[in-house]
Amino acid sequence: MKKVITYGTYDLLHQGHINLLRRAKELGDYLIVGVTNDNFDRDRGKLNVRNNVLERIEAVKATGFADQIIIEDYMGQKIDDIQKYDVDIFAIGSDWTGKFDYLNEYCKVVYLPRTEGISSTMLREVSQEDIKLGVIGCGRTANKFANEIPFVSGGKITAVYDIDFDQANQYASNYNVPIVSCDLNNLFDNVEAVYIATPNTSHYELIKKAIDAGKHVLCENAMVTNLQLSKDLFEKAEKKGIVLLEALKTAYLPAFGHLITLVKSGLIGEVVDIEASVSTLKKDKQVRELNPSMGGGCVYEMGSYPLLPIFKLMGTQYDNLNFYSRMEDGIDIYTRGVMHFSNAVCSFKLGMGVKTEGNLVISGTKGYVYVPSPWWKMDYYELRYEDQNENKKYFYKLDGEGLRYEIHEFFSCIFNKRYSSVRLRKNECVAMAGVMEQFKEKKNFFNI
User: Fold this and answer.
1) Is 163 exposed, middle or buried (0-12, 13-18, 19+ CB in 10 A)?
2) Which of 131, 320, 367, 424 could bond to 155 as cystine, CB 3.0-4.6 Å?
């Protein structure tokens, strides 16, 4: 049997894709099609928001040409796949001529003529207008956001608002934003969606106003710190057909998504323990993160990060949670949380005046996952076993600050009318808010 393999994004599947798949199929007896994952459309250098990987797989399957479909997850995978599947011919469009000559060492490389006059890029330009996005709050994170958004197709910042009008003007000047709004209603009139990057004490009211105005919302974490208010916002958004997404960037990183998939598939056995740490030393004591009136402190500022892998892998129903904190000037500068589930114990350490190693360790009955510091910017992790010969390392490219992946998911949800994201589910966000509410009410709290 002569095996052929080809790769592509297959976004907005069109006649050019179909022609290429047919030509590839004619080269042999068995065609393997690699579909690139959701994270990076390498052809254009931008994250793509039209069809997610499952939709693109279904489109390729519907052509009837593919005997097997695989997902391309990482750079260098083509060599691995060619050897793994004992491939005879690698086929790709002629617009890549010469690019993959290095694969001749492993199989025959064939460049197929592409269909002129049609491409996914052209179809996107015709079918997709940019989402007009408003930024509320012009602090440090909002500046990172503005630097990342050009790497995502489908939207642009068209208006900005901040209670400090001078700061809003400066932001608009720095990033060529055409409208500086003096009030929220003016901003809402000029946008279709908003990104909220204000102190978490203001999030609830801002999100509520945005939803009432019919605007999709991407809000920085912690989105809210009250379980019932979190539920209310998601219910309100769902009723109005609004996308509400929490901007917890780790949830949307390629490496994190793959890690969760591997662990859930049982590669380290049953998970019995998770340890996650996040810490930073703030030299400037006047920063917002250390101000109790602005929602400062470890749990509110950083708690969502370690709770993410815990809730992803263990679910959101825990039996009890104890907090051990060191308080200074009205905020926790250090907190350790210990959570008991029916079949596991999970813990997290947070520090803003205490420094600790920022690792993530997921322990199972067959092995464990080790993610080095800073694990929340995950681009590498290891699966480790008793027999070290079985250890495996995984590497992923992390582009920029990592915010582009959450922007990509936000735009994708809007375009495809998906009102919930599997990368960060509503019940997980609500559970995080519940943990913060427990801390606020000092339930099972011990001062150290």
Assistant:
1) exposed
2) 131
